[in-house]
Request: fold
Amino acid sequence: MLAVFDKSVAQCPEDLKTSSPDDVYALKDGILAKYFGSLHENAMTINLGSPGFVGYSNDKQNPLIPRLIAVVDNIVCLFLGHLENLATLKQQYRMSKSDNEVNIIIEAYRTLRDRGPYPIEQVIRDLQGKFAFILYDLASKTSIFATDADGSVPFFWGADSDGHLVVSDDVEIVKKGCGKSFAPFPKGCFYTSSGGLRSYEHPGNALKPVPRVDSSGEVCGANFKVDSKAKKEPLGMPRVDSAADWSSNY
Reply:
């Protein structure tokens, strides 16, 4: 799975960017979408317009960590892996027996957005299993992605030379679009376009970047670790009927 977001809807952390003599692009001339299609049979891409695009294929997938995609009410979601408490979540969100993990993520997001009384970190923490997901709401131009607390499935993110954010389960695709400016997505964390990168395991603590160094000694993006000494304000999910500026909540 693949998502490329314009910096207007998903601001890339500066510490993820690495200076490089070579320019690499993810959105320009559809470069990364074409590359994704060349690697996977029956690959599909969904054009989000100026915010970017998402790509999906079930080609070469691990049967233990399947990929799923759904589009509901202008919400696009890609899901990788499985949830161990799927039955419990179906009851919680009053969903049918036929619904799967990707439907759960969309419904959980809609509940948070429209009427949810719980903080977003608690909702993601309630997801038990081995997973990563990417969600984009076209109506509000909101992006959310997360991975499980153990980082059990492959999930990477990076920045291209234009500052666009690239997220994928395929490290080679991320390298193609970002060069050296990439890293594994930090386990136990989630990202929102309004609030940036947060830890749902330690929601009260800030995250600090630690530069990544590859085998040749070159800096490649950064890993983000929980800073036990730095605190953050609580994070909430703004309602869709609010007239206030969402950015004021973070």
